[in-house]
Structure formats: C-alpha cells, structure tokens
Amino acid sequence: MSAPILIVDDEPAIRRILGAALHRSGWHCDEAGTADAGLTLARRAGCEVVLLDLGLPDRDGLELIPLLKAMGRAVIVLTARDATAEKVAALDLGADDYVTKPFDTEELLARIRTALRHRSGRASERVEVGALAIDLARYQVTLADQPVVLAKREFALLLELARNAGRVITHQALLRAVWGEAHIDDVEYLRVAIRALRRKVESDPAMPTVVINEPGIGYRLNLGG
Amino acid sequence: MNGNRPSPEALLKAARAEARGKLKILLGAAPGVGKTFEMLREGADLLRSGADVVVGVVETHGRADTQALVAPFALLPRRVIHHGAHTLEEFDLDAMLTRRPQVALIDEFAHSNAPGCRHAKRWQDVEELRDAGIDVITTLNIQHVESLNDVVASFTHVRVRETVPDACLEDAEIEVVDLPPDELIARLKAGKVYVPHEASRALGHFFSRANLSALRELALRRAAQAVDRQMLEQLRASGAAGQFAAGERIVVALGDQPGGEQLVRAAKRLADSWAAPWSVVTVETPHSATLDEAARQRIAAALELGAVLGAAIATIPAVDIAAGLADYARELRATTLVLGKSPGLPRFGHRRGVVVDRLSRELAEVTLHLVPLAPTRHARTGTIRQPLPWAGFGAGVLAIALTTLACVLLQRWVGSKPVDLLYIVPVVAVATRYGLRSALLTSVMAALAYNFFFLPPLYQFTISDPQNLVTFLVLTATGILVANLAGRLRRGERTGARVAIENAAIAGFGQQLASVSDAAGTAAIVATAVHELLGARTMVLMRDDDVLRAVAGEPAIVELDAIDDAAAGWVFERGEVSGRGSGTLNASDWQFHPLASALGVHAVLALSKADASVPLAAAQRTMFTTIKGQAALAFERIRLEREMRDLAVLRQRDKLRAALLSSIGHDLRTPLAALVAASGELAATSPDSPALQTLLGEARRLRRFFDDLIEMTRIEAGALEVRCEPVDLTDAVVGAAHDLRAELAGRQLVLDVPPALPLVLADPRLLHHILINLVGNAAKFSPDQAAITLRGERLSNQVRLVVLDEGPGLPPGEPDQLFERFTQASGSDRTGGSGLGLAIVKGFASAMGLTVEASNRTGGGAQFAIIWPADLIRRGSA
Questions:
Q1: Rounded Cα gap, residues B56 and B9, in angstroms
Q2: What are B346-376's pLDDT values in tens digits?
Q3: How confident is the model at residue B539 (pLDDT cuts 50, 70, 90)?
Q4: What's A146's DSSP letter?
Q5: Which residues of B touch A192 (CB under 8 A)?
Q6: Helices (H), B91-175
Q7: If contacts are CB pairs under 8 Å, which of residues 137-196 in chain A contact chain B?
Q8: Portion of chain B with pLDDT greater than 90, in percent
Q9: B673 touching A, CB under 8 A?
Q10: What span, in angstroms and rounded, lies between the C-alpha atoms of B338 and B66?
Q11: CATH topology (fold) of B247-372
C-alpha cells in the first residue's frame, strides 16, 4: 500500500519542504527524483495524486501526464510563474491543475483537496459558490435562492465550469465544450460570454468572486481559498 | 504555389506605412463644395478628443463661417518670400517640422510653391511631413489628379497645370466632399464660392451642370478606386491575394504620333481599376531611324511617364510595328493591348489601320483597346530633313558615264536594242549603296543618256517612238523600287546592330555586377558604365552611419558643396530625382538619381555635365533607366547578403542569451523557491515567532526582486514573448485582485470596470504583471487602510485602465522619470522594492503597443493609467 500523494521533483529541498507541509496536514507522501522512479511509484495501488515537476532530469514531465492519467491518478503540475504556454500544454494533456512555484502551501493543499474530491466522483450533483447554487442533475441555477435565467451558451459554460468546480479549465477546452471544435481559437466569444454570465451569477459583477480568471490560461469556478 | 504567403514587398510597404504619418484627402469635384470647411471640422473633432492639431495653411477666402472655424486652432505663421516685386506667403515647412504636432491641416494639396521654397509643390511638403510621422489632412479637387488631367481637360476645356501624382493618393484615406451640382451652382450664384477675379469668365463655363456632374462622378469613382486598392494591398499583406495574380496584363504600344503621355495615363487608369500589371513599349523599326529628335524625345518622355506611373518599360526591335507588338504581347501573355487612335485620315505610308487589322488577326485572344488621342497644334510628327547625298549624285554621274561608254563599245557588236537593259545596272548599284534620292537622279540620268546616245533621233533629248518612252519609265520605276528596298534593308541592319550593341553592353554590365560582392566594387562599375554611356562626370554616393560619402567617381571623386549634399540627402530620404533640372533643390550643379528597389534607396547616382542644359538623349534614356535598375538590384543583392550574415550572427547571440537567461533563471529560482517554502512552513508551524515571520517576509521580497531582475533582463534583451489576444479588462482586474488578496488583506479595493467597456488586445500574462506591479506599488505608497481603485474607462479613441491610490502622490520631477530603472519615490525604506517595478511596467506596456502615464490626482494621491490606442480596441464586442 502506497501513500496517497506522490511528489516527483528533482530538487531534494523542494521535496523535503513539500513533504513536511503535507505531513502537517495529515497526508502521507512518497517522493521520487526522476520520471522513471516516479512512474514506478505511481503504478502502486493507493497512489491518488501526483505532484509533478516538469523539469525532470531523465524525461520531460509533460510526457508523464498522459501516462499518469491512464493509471487513473490525479496530476497537479508544479511550474514556474512565467511558463504560461507550459501550463496550458499540461492542462491540455489532461493535468487536473497546476501550482506556480514558489508556491503557497495553503493553496497547494486546497488544490490537492479539490483534485481528490473530483477523483472520488463526489463533485457532481450540486455545486455551491457563495450565494450561487448550481444543481447539475436538474439543470437549475439559483442566486440567493432566486432562479437565474441563462442563455443556452451561458448555461453550457457554467455547467462546464461547475463540473470541474475549483479546477482551472483552459480557454480552448471551454470553447471546445461550448462552441465546438471549429471555434477553439475564438477567445473573443468566450470573453463576451463570460462577461454576460458574470452579470447574472455574480452578486457584484464588477467584483466577481464566482468566475475567476487565470491570465492567459483559462477560467476557474472559485470554491474559496 | 506560395500564393497564400504575404509578399515581402507588401509587408514592407505596410511596415513603412505604419511608421509614416497618415494622409487624409478631402476630395472634391470642384471649388466651392466645402472641402476646407470639412477639413476644419474634422480637425476640430480631433482637437476635442485631445489631439495636437495645427493649421499649416488654410485659404479662408474671407468667408466668415470658415474663418470662425479656424479660431480654435494653433495657426502656423506663413513664411514670407520676396520674389521680385511680389511678396508671397507660403506654408512654412520647417516651422511645422519643428513644431511637430500630431496632425497638420494643409489646404490645397496641389498648390505650387513660390520659387525659393524647398519643394516645387506642396504635395512634396506634405510627403515630408508624413515622413516625420505627422498625420496630415488636406484638400484636393479632382481635376488636379495627374492621371485624370487629360480627361478633365477634354470636357471642361480648362487645363490645370498644378497636378498631384497618383502615387500620393494610393495610401491616403480619401473622403469625397460631395455636393450635388445644383446646390453648388446655387452657392456659386449666391457668391459663396471664391473665384479669383481674372478667372471668373473661364470658370463660368467650368461650372456648367454637365461639367459638374462629370467631375462629381470622377471624384466618386477615384475614391472608390482608392478604397479598392487599399483593400487589395491589405489582402496582399495578409497573403490572400492569390486570385489576383493571374488576372489582366496590359501592354501599351506607343507610336510616334503625339499624345503618347495621354495614352499612358489612360492605360494607367485601366491598370489601376483592374489592379493589373502593365507595360509601356515602343517598337523600333527601320522607319524609327528617320524620326526627328522631337519625336524621339516624345516617345522617351512617354516611356518615362510610364515608368513613373509604375509600368514596366521596353523597346522592341522589329521589322515592322505589328510583328513586333504581336511577338511581345504573346511573350508577355498580355490580355489587353492599348493603342492610340490619331484623329483624321491615316497618313500615307503609315497605315495605322493596317497595323490594327493585322494585330486583331494575329492576336485573336487579346483585347485591343483604342484610345482616341486629342489633336494638338504643335508637335507634329516630323522626319529628319537629310542633307543632299552629294556622294551618291557623283557616283550616279560616274556610273552613267561608264555605262554609256560600255554601251557605246558594246553597240558595235550587238546593236543598240539590248543596251537599255544595261542601264539598270548603275541604277541598282547606286540605289543599294546610296539610297533613294541618288537612285532617282541616276535613273533619270540613265534614261536621258539612253535617249541621247541610242534612240533616234540620236544626240537629241526627244523621244519619237512610244516604245522608247516605256523603256524610260521602266528605268525610273526600277530605280525607285530597288532604292526603297535597299534603303529599308540597310536601316534595318543599322537598327538591329545598335540594339545588339546596347544589349551586349547591358549584358556585359550585368556580368560585371554579378562578379563583385561588395558595395564599393559595384559602385565603381556603375560609375564607369554611366560615365561611358552619358559622357558626364559620374559619382556613386552611399550612406554610412548617416554620413553621405562618395564611394566611386568617374573620372574622379570630387568634393560636393552644401547644396549638393542636401540634394543628395533628399534623394536618399525620398527616392526621387533631385538637383539640376529637377523640381527639388535645382541650384545644385549635379543631378541626383536614386538607385532604389523595393527595399529602399541603396545609393545615389550623381551626374554632372559641362554643358548641364543638355538633357539625356532619347536613345540614352532607356539605356540609362535599365542601367539604374540593374545597379539597384545589385546593391539590393549585396545588402540582402549582408543582412543574412548579420542575422545569422544575431540569431546565434540571441540563442546564447536566451539559454543563459533560462539557466540562470532556473538555477537561482530553485533554491529561492525552497527558501520561501521552507520559511513559510516554519512560519506556519510557529506563527508567533517574529524571527520566522521576518524570515518569510524577506524571503518573499528576495524572490520578488529576483523575478523583477529576470523580467527586466528579458525586456532589455528584447527576449520578451508577446502573445496578444482579446482581453476583458474585468478579467484582468479580477485576476490581479485575486492574486494580491493576501497582500491587500484589510484594504479596500474598488474595482470599477463598466460592463460596456470593449475588449482590448493585450498579452494576458504581461497585463497581469503590470497590474500586480501597479497595485503593489499603490499599496506600498499609501496608508495601510486607504482604498485603491482600479478603473476602466473609454475615451473618444482610447481605452484606459487606471490604478488610483490615496497616498502622498508622485515625487516632484518629471513623471516619466518614474519609469526609469532604479527610480524609487523617496522615503520608501519600509516597503522598498527593487526599483525595477515601474520600468518593467513600462517595458511590458510598450512591448504590447500600450503607453503608461503617471500623474497626481486632483484630490491627492497618484494615478497610473495604461492606455490602449484605437487600433488595439476591439469594436462591437461590448
């Protein structure tokens, strides 16, 4: 039986700190310094979340993502703050989320919790963000108990965000899900629809707290933290 | 095919157009439609939206309503020029260049400047303003457009001498100031149109209803054409012009009759409206050799006009016009052949009708386009009056004397009957050698000698027998026929030989050029070739670090004076001919020609003749144009080769620098990340330890400095990657607030971005960092509890995102200095940063094409505005 969390990073210092932070929150973890060692540990039963650094000595971390997803592991990528393209690539390959180095421990823990929740399938049915409630089974949206009337695309967009509540979804993924493959580059559509959506689901559309923007990457339904 | 790739020329053109000032032409059909009024109104609109607008020249003609419109503008004083007894006031170009406003209003685009100004024409002034990056709004009447000059004159019977080249209109935004003819006539009658006194009668005719309607139609059409053309340019730049490549191809055939320039202009209009490539050609036949100098100059001038208007030009050697044209048209795959149609009956021996018939038979798939040419009083086609061929006459007399002697001797053996045939020999011989006139004289003498010596009655000039009369006529006719034939053959040979020599010279020149690989060698070859062709003192000037230097000279390099330098500099700037005999700086002793290609002016050719008044001879002109073209191509090739080499070096250096940056970035960042995480972890386990809190705070600060340093290095290395996409400013603001929520805890953050704000183009990552820096900066320099506001707003032609704080405001001094590196507002020890924050803001902003402004708020506090110009705002997305 392996620990539920696996850290794959070639820097021993980072591994040690991460291990200490996770331990403090009551999680056990395994550590690996190379991609191959990481894959071996990830294959063991009981591994649920992999914290994956992309700059590994033996292989590009991006290559590992599809392999880990095929094993059914949640993947949270650790990246540098200016690596926008890398983040998008990781998400498009199936990574569940990313955390920017140097990271805030609390944020990392929140992301791990979200990833675990989605993995266990408990994220469906009903999502609540502040005063907004989305019933995924009945296709109902209420704001402070008042029903919200959404246009078709707005609803599809909110649904996509709610199904992945707490996780960032790339622009392209949102465009693909709502507008179809032909429009994955029409970021403008998305900006306009998000703006319309915010007008309806935010308590204060000028200071949104529900739909959060990740600059250059995508949107996230904010579950707090 | 590479049909979808943007052509480099189109991209270059677009890039060059971007840096230049924009030109807007308010085009009118006639004086009095309200162009000046409209120009001032647009200027006033710009003024209100905050632009710096200066009036360069406005002709108000004393009209009160127009004068009232001028009031709000800064007026540039006119330059006073004393010309003889007159005092003239002209537009002051240098004052405007010094004043350097955003927009200049310049009335009457087609105006001719007084002598003593830098340029002969006002449109040249405007071009210079645009080169300096100043936008210009100007006014123009349709009859002043070069290519429409003939058309307008043909129905108004008023020819204007002040014309503006079509090229000026091509990249301009053209707006037609339209007024229906009836209203214009009503305005004219009400005295609302300014008409100079002396011209009022002529203009009465000009302002007829029919004329005005025609002019109006021309103006509207020209404007539509400009729009078409600009669209096409854009398509070319975006690489979508594949379907235009295989369209029409026009060949214009110049004849020796007057009106060639008219023909070229007509063809230019055709080529413009079809966006077709076109060429202007002349056929050099044996007949051409007999043309007088005026006719040759005329053809050369028409060819040159074609070159100026953008056509390819060529001279085709051929035995006759129809054959030459047919071959050329087929070779070029021409779709349309444009020919002139002279008025009146075709002249004897010219047989233009025959040419057209033959062409239409031989070129079944080509459209023949006949342009009627207006009759002109002077300028008749002339042939050279050749001197009397005395040598031929002498030879004729001698030949006849010898023949007669031979006949007399022969008569003893064969009788007098067959000797008449013998007389054909001297006629043919003289005809072949000396031409028609000598042959005619010889045949007359032959007939007379035969009559005198052999026909009864002997030794008298009388003819009794009708048979003898026939003999006499046959001799004469034979002489004429043979002389004609031989003459043609000889001239054909001469033309062919001359063209062959020219071609050989050009080919040799080309080979010489290909054999050198440096600019100095090329310059030397060019100087020698031009000197040999024209016999003029020749120099080639090139620019080296902005200093103009003669690199080659034939026979020698001589010192140039200040005027020459200015004229040569002008050619470099503008790519136009200057100096002696041109419209610019013609006080110089030299004439300067650009050696230019699509990449710009590579070198300047300077010519000076002892007798400078002699223009280039027609035959030399075509050759000279060809040499210039080849030389320019050679210079271009050398420049491209050098740029390729430089680029390779640069790439290598960039690669190194990028590798260094990323390795330093990685090596330093990793231990820093561990340091921050470790101190965070420690601080979390014992939140009460002040030492651990300090450790965490300092570790974070170190990390921020380091990130700043890396970004600044990137900006300065030009290694910043910018990927712009449509961005909602609400998103940007929310993203920044979200990231800063820890730092801003307990502080009021006001996000005031109206939902109706349009999307703007920006790189989301860079914009995010700008906002983080600006908001962080605001927090740093204002009291702990003071609110920070992020406000989005739309002004007339820009979108602004402003960060406002309630701190002490900006330190004294130039606000712009804040954006320099390592500048910090004083007394900031407690919250100090790397001093790079604002420099990074500015670097990121300019990488995206944005500007940042810092100022003090009226109620206290500072504000920093990020400004999107109109072209980075997405329309209709609000």
A1: 33
A2: 443 345 567 788 888 888 778 888 888 765 4
A3: very high
A4: E
A5: 728, 759, 877
A6: 93-99, 122-131, 149-156, 166-170
A7: 187-188, 191-192, 194-195
A8: 6
A9: yes
A10: 46
A11: Rossmann fold (3.40.50)
Interface probe for A, chosen from B703, B739, B765, B766 (most Cβ of A below 10 Å), is B765
Residue B235 pLDDT class (50, 70, 90 cuts): low
Judged by CB atoms within 8 Å, which residues 674-703 of B form the interface with A? 674, 676-678, 680-681, 684-685, 703
pLDDT in tens, A104-114: 777 888 888 88
The CATH class of the B8-242 domain is alpha beta
Domain C-terminal end among A101, A119, A137: A119
In words, the CATH class of domain B720-872 is alpha beta
Classify strands B725-727 and B760-762 as parallel, antiparallel or unpaired: antiparallel
Could you read off the pLDDT of B721-746 as tens digits, one per residue? Answer: 788 888 988 888 888 888 887 778 77
- Can you give the length of chain A in residues? 225
Please tell me whether residues A152 and A214 are part of one structural domain. yes
Q: What is the mean pLDDT of residues B599-615?
A: 74
pLDDT band at B138 (very low <50, low <70, confident <90, very high): very high
CATH annotation of B519-634: 3.30.450.40
Say whether residue B129 is in contact with chain A using an 8 A CB cutoff: no
Q: At what angle do helices B466-515 and B424-434 cross, to 10 degrees?
A: 30
Contact B768 A18 (CB under 8 A): no
In sequence order, what E strands does B591-736 have?
591-597, 600-608, 725-727
Q: Mean pLDDT in chain A?
A: 85
Other residues' Cβ atoms within 10 Å of the Cβ of residue B643? 12
Contact between residue B794 and residue B759 where contact means Cβ atoms under 8 Å apart = no
ipTM over 0.90: no
Query: Which phi and psi angles does B463 have, rounded to 5°?
Result: -120, 120
In one-letter notation, the amino acid at residue B557 is I
Sequence-ordered list of residues with C-beta below 8 angstroms from that of B589, at least 6 positions apart, any chain = B564, B579, B580, B608, B612
Q: What is the pLDDT of residues B96-136, one digit of tens each?
A: 988 889 999 999 898 888 877 888 889 989 988 998 889 99
Cβ distance B731 to A105 less than 8 Å, yes or no, reads: no
Domain residues for the domain of A51 are 5-119
The verdict on A128 touching B (C-beta cutoff 8 Å) is no
The pLDDT tens digits of the residues spanning B288-310 come to 767 777 787 788 778 877 776 76
Same domain, A106 and A130: no
